[in-house]
Write a structure and sequence with these properties.
With 689 residues, the protein is of the alpha+beta class. The protein contains 26 helices and 20 strands. The termini are far apart.
Length: 689
């Protein structure tokens, strides 16, 4: 027997279709039913490649006794956070208020009449263990509490909703105002310290912080950390570490250790887009480490081979777990990616195996008796090592990399176990299209195309951008998701902001193609109409006509694994002002920065993308020149500059540089032009212009 989720489009929801729990999706009918039956709502939020979400689905959510009690006493609702990041954001904030920490699965209990939460947690085991209570005991205790402690329940909910509302309008006490140049200096310095290597804990890419730290390196201000060195080390950790798939390309989500060795093996599209953009930018600063170029190239090939739909868009994610054989009952974490020493001995010549020990390869392994490949040294790989890695590719995929153009996705566990794979059984791929995540990948590819001059990168990026433009509008409105040709869910702020940035990045990589700018302007108009907060400034997460089911209407400013929508959006406004001469965009950018200024003072460690936006606002530079001169500038690191090709230059000049609302004297030589550009890009910290 299956439940309602069998008809869902979301892979994550369908994974719960055979649970004995009587799941609903989030919809008006579910909310009305909970109110009519006076049942508290059990809201469970996760995503398809989340390991502990998968564990809980197979344990507590498959338990008959738990399901019987849940169905009788609660209205259970399952939400894919990738479909509804607005719901996830609100209730994740509530979880953090109640427990001091967050994570997925996000399991939260709501009163049906107002959808305000009164209890929350993450993973609950069936029986008490890991210092966590058994799930059935939690359900029973909370139902008793809901029925018998009405006064305490109301007081508890009042505190939570008050905190959520206060956070949504960014009310806080007075702060000591810093001038923009000091504020930007502080933001860059804090982001640099955030990504400085530590000796404990998991290792996450944290690209919004690396992006700001890299921007800060051009200002040359005194700091306790060497920003260039810290950013270079982060690039090396990513390109050499086990977080990168050295055999098949693409980056895993994070490593479970401080040494960047053993990853959590899921591959998320957004991480790969952000990392590719960072490595390309790092290269453009002059840190031209061969491992960076190899990692970018390998990621692009992985993307083309495994993550690009025939229609041109990019799939969302690949799971961490896969089946070691078709008869296995449960998938194993990392099975598709790791190597036993005996396998390596069989596949490689003695010389190749010896060379492979330039990676972290030992008879005992570094992950449950098997080996995750992590490079010990930077530089160019030898021909022997490349041959060895090619042999491992063939063993994994069943065919050589040269002859494997496309590797079709396994869309669910059944497909994974029953298809006739020539090599190992692959992880399940979530094939939905998410505009925001595709946009991050488009931006990464566009930047890499400009830096490394690789046409493939631009071809992939343009294919995804064109698909979104041609398919994601329904009745004139932009939509967030696409399931096999069907657009779904109105776009949210991150979809608008990231796609506009992607279009502007495509424009930057090829300024002659004006269509990308025209599309960006059109999307920005809709973004402003439906999500701009006239009263508070900045952009709401959801449009004015699709937020009726939310207990608060948030404006995201904090960075997580992805940048904050408002940080990216404000930077976009500055870029649009430069490219169009429409100062209305600049007015909105100023209002946006003003709206979040208190946050930037109070918690600079939480919002690096807002500081990136401030950098754009203070150091915005428009460079007008010929195609030849612009093409020479594109690969350089000019993080607050936009380009405009023109043949109408003053006689005897090679280009014009404008700093915000003022233009410098025409540059008479290439050297003069570069001097002006460099000076313009460095006027935001340590000066009061």
């Amino acid at each position: 027997m299956t439940n309602r989720l069998a008809e869902a489009k979301s892979l994550y929801l369908r994974k719960h279709a055979e649970n004995p729990i009587d799941w609903w999706s989030w919809c008006d009918e579910a909310l009305a039913t909970a109110r009519a039956q006076n049942k508290p709502i059990f809201l469970s939020i996760g995503y398809s490649s989340c390991h502990w979400c998968t564990v809980m689905e197979g344990e507590a959510f498959s338990d008959i006794a738990i399901a019987h009690y849940m169905n009788a006493n609660y209205l259970p609702i399952k939400v894919d956070r990738e479909e509804r990041p607005d719901l996830d954001s609100i209730y994740m904030q509530a979880l953090q208020m109640m427990s001091g920490q967050g994570g997925w699965p996000l399991n939260i209990f709501l009163s049906p009449e107002d959808l305000v939460p009164f209890y929350a947690g993450t993973y609950f085991p069936v029986d008490p263990r890991y210092g966590r209570p058994g799930f059935l005991q939690v359900l029973q205790a909370l139902r008793r509490y809901y029925d018998t402690e009405k006064a305490d329940l109301q007081q508890r909910k009042s505190l939570i909703i008050e905190s959520l509302l206060t956070s949504a309008v960014l009310q806080d006490g007075t702060t000591t105002e810093l001038e923009d140049h000091e504020l930007l200096r502080q933001g860059c310095e804090i982001s640099t310290s955030v990504i400085t290597p530590t000796q404990s804990g998991n290792s996450f890419p944290m690209i919004p912080y690396t992006e700001l730290a890299l921007r800060g390196t051009r200002f040359n201000f005194e700091s306790r950390d060497d920003g260039k060195q810290v950013c270079t080390q982060r690039g090396l950790d990513l390109a050499l570490g086990g977080i990168y798939d050295h055999v098949g390309g693409g980056f895993h989500r994070y490593t479970v250790d401080p040494t960047w060795t053993v990853p959590h093996f899921e591959k998320m599209l957004y991480d790969n887009g952000l990392i590719v953009e960072f490595l390309a930018s790092l290269w453009s600063t002059g840190v031209q480490e061969p491992a960076f170029e190899r990692a970018v190239a390998g990621t692009a090939l992985w993307l083309k081979r495994e993550m690009t739909a025939p229609e041109g868009y990019f799939y969302a994610a690949q799971d961490a777990d896969s089946f070691s054989e078709s008869t296995a009952v449960e998938p194993e974490e990392g099975a598709f990616y790791v190597w036993s020493y005996s396998e390596l001995q069989q596949l490689l010549t003695p010389e190749e195996l010896t060379e492979l020990e330039q990676f972290t390869v030992t008879p005992n392994g570094n992950f449950e008796g098997r080996n995750v490949l992590q490079r010990r040294y930077s530089g160019q790989l030898s021909a022997t090592l490349e041959t060895a890695l090619s042999k491992l590719f063939t063993a994994r995929y069943g065919v050589s990399s040269e002859s494997l153009e496309t590797f079709p996705p396994a869309r669910n566990n059944q497909e994974a176990k029953t298809a006739n794979w020539p090599g190992r059984i692959p992880s399940v791929t979530d094939t939905k299209m998410i505009v925001a995540w595709n946009s991050l990948m488009i931006s990464g590819l566009a930047r890499a195309a400009g830096v490394f001059q690789q046409p493939l990168y631009l071809e992939l990026a343009a294919g995804a951008a064109n698909f979104i433009w041609e398919n994601q509008f329904v009745d004139g409105r932009f939509h967030r998701l696409n399931y096999q040709g069907e657009p779904s869910v109105l776009a949210q702020s991150e979809d608008y902001a990231f796609f506009i940035k992607a279009l502007l990045d495509l424009q930057a990589s090829n300024p002659e193609q004006k269509q990308w700018l025209e599309k960006a302007i059109a999307i920005q108009d809709e973004f402003n109409e439906f999500l701009w907060s006239v009263e508070l400034g900045g952009y709401y997460n959801t449009s004015s006509d699709s937020s009726q089911d939310l207990i608060v209407r948030e404006r995201s400013y904090a960075d997580n694994a992805t940048p904050s929508a408002n940080g990216i959006a404000i930077a976009n406004l500055v870029r649009l002002a430069l490219l169009t001469d429409n100062l209305d965009y600049l007015d909105l950018a100023e209002l946006g920065l003003k709206a979040f200024r208190s946050v930037m003072h109070r918690a600079p460690q939480g919002c690096p993308s807002l500081f990136t936006a401030l950098d754009w606002y203070r150091n915005s530079t428009l460079i007008r020149s010929t195609t030849e001169q612009i093409n020479a500038l594109i690969p350089k690191y000019l993080p607050a500059a936009v380009f405009a090709i023109t043949s109408d230059l003053p006689e005897g000049s090679v280009g014009l540089v404008c700093q915000g609302l003022k233009c410098l004297a025409p540059a008479k030589s290439v050297e003069h032009l570069l001097q002006q550009v460099e000076q313009s890009q460095n006027r935001g910290v340590g000066s009061r212009e």
